[in-house]
Amino acid sequence: MGYDIERFVGYVNEGLLCCICRDVLEDPLQAPCEHAFCTSCIHGWLVHHNNCPEDRQALDMSVLRPLYRYMKNDLNRLQLHCKNREHGCEMICSLESIDRHERECEYSHIPCSNTGCPVLVERRNLDGHLAVCEYRSRECPNGCGYTVLSAEDTQHNCVAELRTELELLRSEMICRMEEARHEMESRLDSQRRHMVQKESLLQNEIEELKSQMSRMMSDLRSLMAAERQHRQELEQAELEKCELMELRKGLQKDCRLNSDASKKGTHFRPLTRLDSVKRKPREVTVI
Ligand SMILES: [Zn+2]
Ligand SMILES: [Zn+2]
Ligand SMILES: [Zn+2]
Ligand SMILES: [Zn+2]
Ligand SMILES: [Zn+2]
Asked: Beta-carbon neighbour count of residue 12 at 10 Å?
């Protein structure tokens, strides 16, 4: 929709009017047939038509172009009243700068800045409204630390508020402690499982070592038994050796005696051989 022609000061060229809304062009576009329209007007028209509303020539969105520069300049230079004229604004400015003015116009109606407040107020009256707005908030004068909406002022009860807060904190704390406990328990549990596993591993190793040791002990016992056996056999052999030595000595002695006896024809007597040796030369000298 264009700008209401009533707001303009002085004559407005026919060519700067929208062919559809007949007001002064707002955000204009131009067709190849040189007819011009507000963007919103022609977009609305082309939803149900495919021609120029002025001369019925074929038309679609893709052939629309910006307004000729000289027309755009003429448009921008038009002077018009602020839209808040009926509320008291006496500003007249060029079409080019009317938007900027209206954004900051003291007579524009703006929403109250307090959240939840439905009041629309002229910008110049905002401060006055904020001072009495039912949605204004302020810190509790009793020092409980709460921000109280003006509308709830009489219902505010510091103790009740604090009690609610305390309950909230308490339940939050319980929740957190519960979480921590759960985590700790699960950690302990996994450690316990780990230890049990380790213990059974160690137990197995101990069993293995025990069986190794008992095998070694039985080996050792059989080795010792074998050694004992060997030693007995050795002693036995030694004994037999001694006996045999004795026997040999006896036999040698017998053997010698026998040979002496067979030489002299007498049985062995001590010194017999010596005597005969001593005696023989004497016999000889006597002869
Ligand atoms: Zn229009
Ligand atoms: Zn046309
Ligand atoms: Zn104004
Ligand atoms: Zn308000
Ligand atoms: Zn309070």
From this structure: 19
From the list 257, 287, 255, the residue with the least C-alpha distance to 272 is: 257
| Tokens read off for 130 | 């904020």
From the CA of 18, how far away is ligand 1's center (Å)? 4
Integer Rg of the chain from CA: 68
Looking at the CA of 82, name the nearest ligand: 3
What residues have a C-beta under 5 A from ligand 5, the ion?
Answer: 140, 142, 144, 146, 158
Going from the Cα of 3 to the center of ligand 3, the distance in angstroms, rounded, reads 15
pLDDT digits (tens, 9 = 90+) for 263-277: 776 555 554 444 544
Are 124 and 49 within one domain?
no
Q: Is the pTM of this model over 0.90?
A: no
Digit-coded pLDDT (tens) for 200-222: 999 999 999 999 999 999 999 99
Q: 119: domain CATH number?
A: 3.30.40
Q: What is the DSSP letter of 27?
A: S
